[in-house]
Design goal:
By secondary structure, the chain is mainly α. Helices cover 74% and strands 0% of the residues.
Length: 280
């Protein structure tokens, strides 16, 4: 029988899965409602007449923009300092993350080639993994507050804060990338007498280099955003200048700094996106 002779089925009048979607939507609302109550989430307060007047006066203070030559020169210096803080912090994070990641990867363990890792390497691997957990569990803002008290105000505190937190993030993800990739070349090199670094360089790295580099570039982009936030606790850069302008109630300077920050983040996003596409 030809397919043209088969009767045509009538299209359903409604989505056959509507009941399931409605159930899960209602379930999500039921779960989110106590969270909204606990956080006192009342967005309609923003549109109250008194609050709208306050918001209008606040936004009016942002105009005109601060475009004085001396101030723009200061903004340019702080923008460069922000990029330098992020780049130096990620560089130090790499110096910590790479050896920690290699120590946490089971594929590079010689004793694991027989099936069960020896007790010493096993516990060393656990200590390294817990170290990475501790590093990434403490937000960079908390590290910055600590280092501001130790080394004083300035970019050094921001660099060290980014380095520690991002070392934990990079080390964890590096280890997961290396362990999820093809391990046979590295194991073959280890069985034939190669060292761990040789097994990493010639067995694991070639297959995972693009993914590792892509994630590193993405983290550098995130570090630029973090470096601005760290400036609010005295770690230098655009954030510290933005904090000073806000405390002085100079709306024009705040608006100029915000626009520069948006442009900086957009530029970093374009650069990191281009690098990821080139690596992909």
């Amino acid at each position: 029988m030809s397919t043209s002779a088969l009767p045509l089925r009538r299209a359903p009048d409604r989505d056959p899965a509507w009941q399931r979607r409605l159930f899960w939507t209602l379930a999500a609302l039921v779960l989110l409602w106590p969270l909204a109550v606990a956080t006192e989430f009342r967005p309609w307060v923003l549109f109250a007449p008194d609050n709208l007047q306050v918001s209008a006066r606040f936004l009016a203070d942002f105009w005109p923009l601060a475009l004085e030559r001396d101030f723009l020169a200061l903004v340019a210096r702080e923008t460069w300092r922000t990029v330098a803080i992020a780049t130096a912090g990620v560089t130090l994070a790499l110096l910590l993350a790479v050896p920690l990641a290699l120590a946490s990867v089971r594929t590079l363990s010689v004793s694991a080639l027989s099936g069960r890792m020896a007790r010493g390497p096993f516990w060393l691997r656990q200590v390294v993994r817990w170290t990475l957990v501790v590093l990434r569990s403490v937000p960079e803002l908390v590290w910055a507050l600590v280092f501001v008290r130790v080394v004083g105000l300035g970019p050094t505190a921001g660099v060290l804060a980014i380095a520690l937190t991002y070392a934990g993030m990079l080390g964890k993800v590096y280890g997961e990338i290396l362990e999820s990739g093809e391990s046979q070349p590295a194991e073959t090199l280890l069985r034939n007498g190669s060292g761990r670094l040789q097994a990493f360089a010639y067995g694991l790295l070639p297959a995972n280099a693009a993914e590792l580099t892509s994630y590193t570039v993405y983290r550098w982009e995130c570090a630029i955003r973090s470096s601005v936030v760290l400036g609010f606790v005295g770690a230098g850069g655009l954030g510290q200048q933005l904090d000073n302008s806000m405390k002085m109630f100079v709306g024009g300077e705040v608006a100029t700094l915000l626009l520069v920050f948006v442009a900086l983040v957009a530029l970093a996003d374009r650069v990191s996106g281009g690098l990821r596409r080139a690596l992909g």
